[in-house]
Amino acid sequence: MVKLGNSKQLFLVPIMVAVVLGLILMTAILPMVKMNPKNIPIGLVVADEGKMGATLAEKLLENAPDVVKFTQFDSVEALETAMDDRDVYGALVVPADFSSKVATLQTETPEKATAQIYINEGANATVATLVQNALTTMVSVLNTQLSTQMLIAVQEKTDEMKGQLADVLQAQGEGSPLAQVSAMISPIQPSKVLDFANPIQVEIIKVHEAGGLGNAPIAFLMLTWFTSLIGGVMLYLVGNKRVFASKADKVKFNSLQSIMPFVYALIAGYVATWYSTWLLGFELEHFNRVALYIAVCVAAFTFMIFATLRWLKLPSIAIYVLLMFFSMSAVQMAPEMMPAFYRDYIVSWLPLRIYADGLREVLFFSHDVMNSYSVALIWVLVIALVLVWVKNLVEKPELQTEQ
User: Fold this and answer.
1) ABC-2 type transporter transmembrane domain: which residues (predicted)?
2) What is the model's pLDDT at position 182?
3) Is the pLDDT higher at 334 or at 310?
4) What pTM was estimated for this model as a whole?
5) DSSP-derived pairing of the beta strands 40-46 and 90-94
6) Structure confidence at residue 403 (pLDDT)
7) Cβ atoms within 10 Å of 68's Cβ, excluding its own
8) Reduced to 3 states, what is the DSSP secondary structure of residue 206?
9) More confidently predicted of 151 and 91
10) Which CATH class is domain 33-207?
């Protein structure tokens, strides 16, 4: 220890930390700094069979910004299925009566056409806001274009009417009161001016509403991960270099070591969920399901960390500390918002991504504790438990020597 303290190589440690840790941390925050939403999948349903609906769909597909990527669906039912499967984050629906209602704007009983914007809010709170703003902007542009087209048509009709009356009015002479009629001719009634200015109205429909729970995955993240981290470390330390009276005592201790994470996880799941309602004001529709899902996460992560420590020793805990930094972006952001490198080579294998997607499933979609994500976590738990017991069986116990 004295020799190490006197070593001049210690001066290099801060430089190594700056180089290595800097690279790791900068990579971890890369998605937040270089956020570049692109090709976010959006649905499009054109139920209107009129010319106006077809023209609208064509313009949308041609002029869609890079931030979104439209996928056409045959019906609203097919679109809703895609939203249930989280294949799209939102959609634009042109109803069957769109063209007919646009045509009524020049009649005595005008009706505004409606474009429906669907927002798959539960899929990702950040993307939901982005998609809503993008689609609203696109409808506003279409509104302006349609208004311009209608006003051009009105102007042409006005010019036609003026041309038909030109000879009659000219014959009256400039001093005649009828001479001013030409300037007053317009087929638009004053009461319809606003309808012509904004022919399309927007109806926003939120699917799988998140309400005040949109940030729930990030709210539970710290508690879920750090309780698992501390639990795995404690399980390792309590058994590391432990001396047993006999092999039977070792088996009993290892069995207790394998049971405690389940108890620990169950308590952590319910405590975390209760804290979220008490301190954060979360209104959970299914309190027990959320608590049990958090418990599954804590149990799986605790065993995963414990198994790693059993085979690779205590320094391997650094892996899971770093995973926390890399997971912050994965939990908050959709893959379509991340740089390609981060999305393709980092996010896909992060365990906390599974936790976050599974929690969204419980909160906003199927509401079932057992879903594809919790099944993946259970497989992690089972594999980790097997690895722990393989290590228990191959490791020679330290037995107490008889005095």
Assistant:
1) 15-389
2) 47
3) 310
4) 0.83
5) parallel
6) 47
7) 24
8) strand
9) 91
10) alpha beta
